[in-house]
């Protein structure tokens, strides 16, 4: 069972870049060029259409790491492509394996120097289950939502990722797996950032990953985790395919959720659950509700009963994840016996509930934590003020008071 182990092995080689250190490379990433646009670019140059198919194959299926590696193309075309597009938008990487090689954390450097993370998890085959390789990816450098238990939230917002920067995390993992004849089976948007606040690019990335002419991953194998951006959930649902939705709920009661997930002040619990219910109805897919369990804060019987009441009869699945000790919070994760007691009360209402131990906790916590370490330590006084504010806000929430704090900047007004 889960003994608390250090969640992070620091990356030693890449130098810190808490904020952008150089101008961005203006060439678009080739992976964000839609197939039709690429065909147009090829025919404008008087080249035959099959060249576009060769480029698409090299971008989405091959093991090439640059245009120079794509030997099916004439050298002049390779040079021209390289002048117009970036083959890869993540320019430098460090990979560190943990869990005896079952988890690989990757720190990617972007063209302007910012660092983002992805985590590749290997699940060996078991009786009745094939092997799986799941990649957790980032959608933003930093995050504006500011959940007080999250390392990315503490970093604040740097910038939205480009569509190519999102999918290139996936291409990198797929290439690494292909070398050993393995395939990426699942992609989850549970890394740095709030995917549905970088909505257009994330939806474009999802479409590219799902498109049979590009990455070709089935919709059911793509999970979007959101802290509850209601208009974004509705646009994801409207796309049509059966993408999996995970809601980072953390609390069923609004006063507490106002503090744990500050955008609850904009889109409260009932609105989030209503949008999730529509997603389940339209796609037939069970929605996952994630709860990061924080000792003495959101893990009481009262919280379990409120959750059971909220989700009774929904097409829902609950995932309980003891909080990993990250960020500068005054809190610790809920001890396992209490997580199990909480799970039992929710199950009693007929709601499937699982507890995610080590690896699960590492995913959420690892994403953002490394980048936060690279950003350097805040001063002790800043940490003390942050803790005092969090304690005061959560104490008021536990008395049932709604937050008087504004909606975080970049999330929308109340
Ligand atoms: N912004 C999106 C997706 C990225 S966060 C969202 O919030 O859903 C991915 C998951 O990691 C979320 O469920 C989040 O609550 C969880 N997480 C963040 N910090 C954590 C921590 N310290 N311990 C455990 N889970 C954490
Ligand atoms: Fe942003 Fe998700 Fe972290 Fe909250 S938990 S700060 S929404 S990344």
Explain the overall architecture.
The protein has 414 residues and is α/β, with parallel strands linked by helices. The chain folds into 2 domains: 55 residues, DNA polymerase, domain 1; 309 residues, Aldolase class I (TIM Barrel, Alpha-Beta Barrel). Helices cover 37% and strands 17% of the residues. The chain contains 13 helices and 12 strands. It has a 10-stranded mixed sheet with strand order 1-2-3-4-7-8-9-10-11-12, sandwiched between helices. Strands 5-6 form a two-stranded antiparallel sheet. A hairpin with a 4-residue loop joins β2 and β3. α7 packs parallel to α9 and α10 runs parallel beside α11. The longest helix has 19 residues. Bound molecules: S-adenosyl-L-homocysteine and iron/sulfur cluster. S-adenosyl-L-homocysteine binds next to β8, β10 and α12.
CATH-defined fold name of the largest domain: TIM Barrel
Low-pLDDT segments, ≥5 res: 1-12
The SS-based structural class is: alpha/beta
Q: Count the E strands.
A: 12
CATH homologous superfamily title of the largest domain: Aldolase class I
Average pLDDT taken over every residue: 89
Instruction: Report the end-to-end length measured between terminal Cα atoms.
Output: 42 Å
Report helical residue fraction. 25-40%
Rounded radius of gyration (Å):
22 Å
Number of domains: 2
Order of neighbouring strands in the sheet with most strands: 1-2-3-4-7-8-9-10-11-12
Order of helix and strand elements from N to C terminus: HHHEEEEEHEHEHEHEHHEHEHEHH
Tally of helical runs: 13
Annotated CATH architecture of the largest domain: Alpha-Beta Barrel
CATH level-1 class of the largest domain = Alpha Beta
């Amino acid at each position: 069972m889960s003994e608390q182990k250090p969640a992070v092995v620091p990356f030693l080689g890449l130098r810190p870049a808490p904020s952008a250190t150089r101008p961005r490379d203006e060439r678009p990433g080739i992976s964000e060029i839609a197939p039709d646009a690429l065909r147009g670019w090829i025919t404008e140059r008087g080249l035959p259409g099959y060249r576009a198919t060769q480029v698409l194959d090299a971008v989405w299926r091959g093991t090439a790491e640059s245009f120079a590696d794509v030997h099916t193309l004439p050298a002049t075309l390779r040079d021209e492509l390289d002048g117009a597009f970036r083959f890869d938008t993540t320019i430098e990487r460090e990979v560190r394996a943990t869990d005896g090689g079952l988890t690989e954390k990757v720190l990617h450097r972007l063209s302007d120097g910012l660092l983002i993370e992805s985590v590749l998890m290997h699940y060996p085959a078991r009786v009745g289950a094939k092997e799986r390789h799941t990649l957790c990816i980032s959608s933003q450098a930093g995050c504006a939502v500011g959940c007080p238990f999250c390392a990315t939230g503490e970093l604040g917002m740097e910038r939205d990722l480009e569509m190519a920067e999102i999918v290139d995390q996936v291409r990198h993992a797929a290439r690494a797996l292909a070398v050993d004849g393995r395939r990426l089976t699942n992609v989850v948007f549970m890394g740095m950032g709030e995917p549905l606040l970088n909505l257009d690019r994330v939806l474009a990335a999802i479409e590219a990953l799902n498109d049979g002419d590009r990455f070709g991953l089935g919709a059911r194998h793509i999970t979007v985790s959101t802290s509850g951006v209601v208009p974004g959930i509705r646009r994801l649902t409207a796309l049509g395919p059966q993408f999996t939705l995970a809601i980072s709920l953390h609390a069923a009661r609004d006063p507490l959720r106002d503090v744990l997930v500050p955008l609850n002040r904009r889109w409260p619990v009932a609105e989030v659950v209503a949008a999730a219910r529509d997603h389940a109805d339209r796609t037939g897919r069970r929605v996952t509700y994630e709860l990061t369990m924080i000792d003495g804060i959101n893990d009481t019987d009262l919280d379990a009963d409120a959750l059971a009441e909220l989700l009774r009869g929904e097409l829902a699945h609950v995932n309980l994840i003891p909080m990993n000790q990250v960020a500068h919070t005054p809190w610790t994760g809920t001890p396992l016996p209490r997580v199990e007691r909480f799970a039992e009360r929710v199950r009693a209402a007929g709601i499937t509930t699982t507890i995610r131990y080590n690896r699960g906790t590492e995913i959420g916590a690892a994403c953002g934590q490394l980048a936060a370490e690279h950003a350097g330590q805040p001063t002790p006084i800043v940490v003390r003020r942050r803790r005092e504010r969090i304690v005061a806000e959560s104490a008021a929430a536990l008395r049932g008071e709604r937050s008087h704090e504004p909606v975080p900047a970049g999330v929308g007004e109340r």
